[in-house]
Amino acid sequence: MAQFDVHKNTGKHKAPIPFVVIVQSSQFNHYRRRVVVPLVRATEVGRVQFTSFNLIFTIRGIKVVLHPLEIVSIPVEQLGERVGSLMQSGEDIVHALDELFSRAWQ
C-alpha cells in the first residue's frame, strides 16, 4: 500500500463513495491504519466550486470528486481491492490537503 493508491470502499457508503485514496506518508506504513480521503461520485456532489480543493478524477469509468473534508483513518484490513494510483496527481492532492489544514484563510 502506497501513498495515493486508490482502493475500493468496502464500507456502508460504498454506493456514493466507491473509492478512497490513501494520503498518509509511507513513513507510517508500519501502523495498522491508513489515512484516506473519500472519492465521491460526481453525481452525488453536484457542482464543484473549488476545483483545486475538490479535484475531479475518473476511476474505472466512474467520475469521482476528492472530498478532503471527509478525511478519515481506517484499519488496513478494511481497505478494499487496490484499483489504481493517483501518484501522477500527488502534488495536487497534497495542495488540496494544505488548503484544508493551513491557516491561509485566517
Description of the molecule:
By secondary structure, this protein is α+β, with helices and mostly antiparallel strands. It has a single domain, classed as SH3 type barrels (Roll). It has two helices and seven strands. Strands 1, 2, 3, 4, 5, 6 and 7 form a seven-stranded antiparallel beta sheet that branches. The longest helix has 12 residues, at 90-101.
Order of helices and strands: EEEHEEEEH
| Strands, count | 7
Fraction in helix: 10-25%
According to CATH, what is the topology? SH3 type barrels
Enumerate how many helices there are, as a single number.
2
Average pLDDT taken over every residue: 94
Q: What's the number of structural domains?
A: 1
Notable characteristics:
alpha+beta, about 110 residues, 2 helices, SH3 type barrels
Question: What can be said about this structure in brief?
Answer:
Helices cover 15% and strands 36% of the residues. The protein has 106 residues and is α+β, with helices and mostly antiparallel strands.
Topology of helices and strands:
Layout: E1 5-9, E2 19-22, E3 33-41, H1 42-45, E4 56-59, E5 62-66, E6 72-75, E7 79-85, H2 90-101
